[in-house]
Structure formats: C-alpha cells, structure tokens
Amino acid sequence: MVIVKVNRKSIQKNPYAGATTSYRWHGVKTTFKTICTEHELIELNNTKGVHIFSERRSENEMVDIDGCIDDPKYDFTKLPGSWTVDSKKDIETINHLPISEYSYKYENPLIECNVCKNKVKLSEIKLEYNYDNTYEICPICESVYSFDYKYEDIL
Ligand SMILES: [Zn+2]
User: Fold this and answer.
1) Do 27 and 72 belong together in one domain?
2) CA geometry: angle at 18 spanning 102 and 105, to 5°?
3) Structural domain span for residue 60
4) Residue 138 falls within a domain, yes or no?
5) How many whole angstroms from 124 Cα to the centroid of ligand 1?
C-alpha cells in the first residue's frame, strides 16, 4: 500500500476559513428602457451590442422596449427613442459548505500496478465513468482497480 502524502509546502491557511458565502463578479450589467416607433425598433434590432428583452405596443403606435447593452459606455444618445439607462454591478452570491481551515495538494508518487507490475504516476492512472460509477484503469495493461494506495489524512 502506497500512502499518497500531502505536499507539506502546499499547505495554506485559508483566509476565508469557515465562510459559507462567496461572491462571483460578473462585471457591470447595463439595462435600458426606451420608447420608440416601429421603424426605430428595426434600427435598434440591427444595432450591435444592443439586446432587446421585451417589446410592448401601446395605442399611440409607440413601442415600449426593455433590454440591455454590452458596453456600459455605449453612446445611446445616438440611438432612436427616449432612453433611461440603469447600470448595476452584477455580483452573484454563492452559498456553500464552510471553507476548510487549510487547503493543500497531494504528491504524485509512482504506484505499482498489481497486474502488470509497471510503476505509474498517480496522475496518469486513467479514470473511466460509467453511469454513476468511476473506475480506475491502469494506462498500460487496462486492468481495473489494480493500484493499492491511500491518501494521507492530516486532519
Ligand atoms: Zn497494469
């Protein structure tokens, strides 16, 4: 049995240990509302970087439009209609299990295949997925589960 050791140099204290919330930054999202004519709507549909989410026709033959713009610095004053623009920071909140106190990597030792007796690096052992199961396969002789190893437990 080979013990796959934790690389001592890789051990780091997690600055956010215990946290159950992380944030992912998606940049700035710029949405707009405008009212314009059917003809202007066609022009907007053909404008690069302008995406229309919804169009509502009102009685005076004007169209209420909601959409978003790729570039928040877009000069929408050149576009048809009467515009209101709203820029929001788009930050996603992700909830997860508490972040552990330490993070670390394992070493990549040579492990002998019980069948063909070749030594293979841990990272070179093939994994195959079949429905819900994962199989370890020797990259040389294709035997299944022919390596005997265990990960060191440091906690
Ligand atoms: Zn083998």
Assistant:
1) yes
2) 20
3) 22-94
4) yes
5) 12
